[in-house]
Amino acid sequence: MNQKVRVRFAPSPTGSLHLGGVRTALYNYLFAKHHGGEFILRVEDTDQERSTDASRHQQLEELKWLGLNWDEGPEVGGAYGPYMQSLRLDYYQEIAQKLIDIGLAYYCFLTDEQIESLRENDRRWVSPYRDLSIDEARKRILAGDAYVLRFRLPDVPKTYVLNDWVRGEVALSTEGLTDFVLLRFGGMPVYNFCCVCDDHAMLISHVFRGEEHLPNSLKQMLLYDALGWKAPEFGHLSVIVNEERRKLSKRDGAVSVGSFRDEGYLPAAILNAVALLGWSHPDAQDIFSLKEMIRVFDGKRLGASSAYFDREKMRWTNAMHIRQLTADDLWSMLWPYVADLNLPSDAHWPKMALAVYQTEIQTLSDAKLLLAPFSLDAFRIEGVDEIFTWEKTLILLKSWRELLLTKGDYVSSQEFSAFIEAMKEQGLQGKKLFMPLRAAIIGKLQGAEMQMLVQLMPKKELLRRINQLTEVLM
């Protein structure tokens, strides 16, 4: 790189981060870190009707939870702040005045109805206020007339060529474009104007963003040209689509960071899965860490084709990351999901349980269903009365109770195998052996493999359950 890499992620604070926003933040972060540059966070909150402080705080917290810590921005500071657009209004007014002074911006007093009428007659309509003198415009403003500030397009159509990091050469022509708004009535800047002003002021070198912003590039290039500023390099990322190959949106269900976090997805897994939505690892790996991504992400393996979000692939990715965790780390992460279960208090129990179930957990929330049978107050007998009328069932239950009265805190694998063989010698096998036994252990006819169950349930709890069952039967 010939210049210092400075990239930015600039979300609007209007809710939890969507997967598309996470990908934009991630790619910018990786590009900066790979090239020894800086990752800037800028809050684009000029849409005052939709922006909220609560959303801003939520998004900042979600970025930190994901591990995408910014070098400059809110809560961190930096030399080019403030990093919230609502606090930079004086700066936008200053640049707007510069455009007025050089004759490339003018006040327009058209109403929405008048604009619609002009558009019906000519798609590339021209404002009648384009050549209104500044003095006349100011008189109308002082009189209370509503206005916007518009950018004056070149009289002759002009074409700009972007050397896009994702799409190669992209030609953008002003043909058919009309003079566009810079400042709304009341002085609030529009997106394209403040985006250019801030990217210039913050020395942004590269901009990676969604392909929906590609049309905005033309207006932005016009502003860079008019102001004599160097534009950053652009990379317009592919659209993310759902299984119907339509653009992924919040209507597709839980596709926000908040939702994935609640379900029990790990930050590392989310970033891993999102990274592959438009980029491929040079070694064709599917599972990798953030550190590994930084090492290999140079911005050159970005695809322009639509990226399909596969929820099952994301679950699998999460499961692979869960398998890489130590038992201690995994238990601390899944504890909030199982805290209301009255699980055995043995200090070694979590490691014993995870030795059996870690490979079964795809999301942290899965742990509650998997570990629920071990809750010391979970035993409920549900619709199993019929099996206790089967021949020799009472012999089975009596023998099981006798085993539980032997020494030791848990039923060992050897003890359980010997018990099963002894029952088979009594003529019990198949469903007549295993269904009543499972009911005695968990009160249901279906569940985890019994050898796993009994090794993770204290004998005293199993004994309590068989006693409870006996009381019901009697």
Terminal Cα separation, in Å?
A: 82 Å
| CA radius of gyration | 32 Å
Number of helices: 19
Strand order of the largest sheet: 3-4-7
List unreliable stretches of 5+ residues: none
- Sheet bearing the most strands, described? 3 strands, antiparallel
The run of helices and strands is EHEHHEHHEEEEHEHEEHHHEHHHHHHHHH
CATH architecture of the domain at 379-474: Orthogonal Bundle
Look at the structure and give the CATH class of the domain at 379-474: Mainly Alpha
Class per helix and strand makeup = mainly alpha
According to DSSP, the number of beta strands is 11
Strand content: 5-15%
Question: Whole-number average pLDDT?
Answer: 92
In short:
This protein is mainly alpha-helical and 474 residues long. The protein is built from 19 helices and 11 strands.
Structural summary, described in words:
- This protein is mainly alpha-helical and 474 residues long.
- Among the domains are: 91-183, Glutamyl-tRNA Synthetase, domain 3; 325-376; 379-474, Arc Repressor Mutant, subunit A (Orthogonal Bundle).
- The chain is 44% helix and 9% strand.
- The chain has helices at residues 19-34, 53-66, 89-101, 112-121, 134-142, 191-201, 214-227, 257-263, 267-275, 290-296, 311-323, 327-338, 349-357, 366-371, 393-404, 413-425, 431-442, 450-455, 459-473, and strands at residues 6-9, 38-41, 105-108, 148-151, 159-164, 168-173, 181-183, 206-210, 233-237, 240-241, 307-308.
- Strands 3-4-7 form a three-stranded antiparallel beta sheet.
- Helix 7 (214-227) links the parallel strand 8 (206-210) and strand 9 (233-237).
- The N and C termini lie far apart (82 Å).
- The mean pLDDT is 92.
